[in-house]
Amino acid sequence: MNNQVVSSLVWAGLMVGSAAALTALEGAGILPDGGERGFGVVMGLVLAWTGNMMPKWGADKKCASDGEAFRMKRFAGITMMLGGIGYAVAFFVAPLEKAPYWAMLPVVIALLVIFLMVLTKRRIV
Fold this sequence. Notes:
transmembrane helix; transmembrane
């Protein structure tokens, strides 16, 4: 197996294992809102990991040059990583009733910034 498959399987195991552990802790009364809050943090970390992996994936053939493709992927990866960290922090800090709404804000902003960068194809990085 290559490195990407192993890494993806580790993250999938982390997601399933953390959801099961946090739900068990919530059921036992140890963590009252641990399942939902903890899984939101894990999902934010998965988004950050995906953003971190974006520049390492193959080059897009629609770009004028490999350098341009790498710059665009690096910028998009950094932006998605920051959006994922913002998602995780929002789920960790915000009141649970409002956490899903606050958590989506950094992700939506990151996606809009990436979309605008692709539309303009400016050298941002």
